[in-house]
Design brief:
The protein is mostly helical. The chain is 51% helix and 0% strand. The protein is built from four helices and no strands.
Length: 83
């Protein structure tokens, strides 16, 4: 798939966010988990990719089926707080 620079940036941002499930990325950008891994591998540095894979391995908030139903929001409650 071809993505604009702004779409690539948003996909990478969503992939790094702890509370954004992989399914949300798939719904918005049609990238399943394995395609997202390939996308990240080719669009971030090798070091960043390794950190990303290690950080999200087994993280339950990144998979809707494993996510606690009490988690209703996609971001930290203080992330978009007005200053």
């Amino acid at each position: 798939m071809q993505f604009s620079d702004s779409q690539k940036s948003r996909i990478i941002e969503m992939a790094w966010e702890d509370r954004t499930p992989f399914e949300a990325i798939e719904n918005l950008y049609s990238l399943n988990h394995s395609q997202l891994v390939g996308f990240m591998r080719s669009n971030v540095s090798a070091g960043s990719f390794k950190v990303w894979r290690k950080r999200h391995a087994g993280r339950t908030t990144k998979h809707l089926k494993l996510r606690d139903p009490a988690v209703m929001r996609s971001h930290c409650k203080t992330q978009y707080k007005n200053r």
